[in-house]
Amino acid sequence: MVGGVPGDRRPLRGVLRDHVVGQQLPAQRHARWIVQLERWTWTLHEHRLNVLVAHHKRLAQAMDISYGTIHFLIPPLILIWLWRRHPDQYRRWLYVIVGLTVASLFAFWWFPVTPPRLYPGTQLVTSTSTCRLALATDGSASHFVDTDACFGGLGPLDRGKFSDKNPYAAMPSLHMAWSAWCACAVIAVGPRSRWRWLAALYPGWTAAVVLGTANHWSMDLFGGLVLLWAAWFIVARTAAPRIRSDGK
């Protein structure tokens, strides 16, 4: 989960994901399918949130920081908490997050998707002037603003170490799947305290971040939740009985 490879500061999942490189043309085609589906289901609202975030620099930077760092920190901390405080539940939740992460790699290879920030028609941001142009032309529903390219936000960590070699690994959203996993683990296992409510807010913040920064479509979030449910279901039907029989 949190390991890496020599010379690379990214978690192992990031390294593996970047090797499952999607192709541009299929990714754009799949993104158009998603846009059509969202129009049909009245869920195409990413553009409004992205415009709101892009025109508030500090908010955009805070969300960029969150997008690039927090999902590397919270899930490992939850795993450590489960291991130390709830060892009888640790293996079950470990199997769930490992299963959904491995399954996502196959999804990225089989169904690459162009994120909103790279959707055809969106201004490519490479400088301050192109950032201003992107902000000036965001009136169209198909023109998004790449907030990270415009404003950054990773501070001293922004040295290219967190950049994705595979920008088409959008479906499903692992940010959403991991944040929902954290919430489910804390709520299901943790004591009845305010931490349960804080955990419940985490997926909501994650959804706002990934949509506001134009890194995901709404259907990517739904895909992440479906992936989490599928992983939990499989673990509950297969691994969980063996865990109980082992007394662990």
Please, could you describe this protein's structure?
By secondary structure, the protein is an all-alpha fold. It has one domain. Helix content is 66%, strand content 0%. It contains 11 helices and no strands. Helix 4 packs across helix 5. The longest helix is centred in the first third of the chain and has 29 residues.
Question: In a nutshell, what does this entry contain?
Answer:
The protein is mostly helical. It has helices spanning 12-19, 24-40, 46-54, 57-85, 87-110, 128-136, 147-151, 174-189, 194-212, 218-237, 239-246. Helix 4 crosses helix 8, helix 4 packs across helix 9 (194-212) and helix 5 crosses helix 10.
- List the domain count as a whole number: 1
Distance between the termini: 21 Å
**What is Rg?**
19 Å
Largest sheet geometry:
none
- Total beta strands: 0
User: What is the global morphology?
Assistant: globular
Helix content: 55-70%
Q: What is the number of helical segments per DSSP (H or I, 4+ residues)?
A: 11
**Uncertain spans, ≥5 residues at pLDDT below 50?**
1-10, 15-20
N-to-C order of helices and strands:
HHHHHHHHHHH
Portion in beta strands: under 5%
> What structural category characterises the helix and strand content?
mainly alpha
* Mean pLDDT, all residues: 81
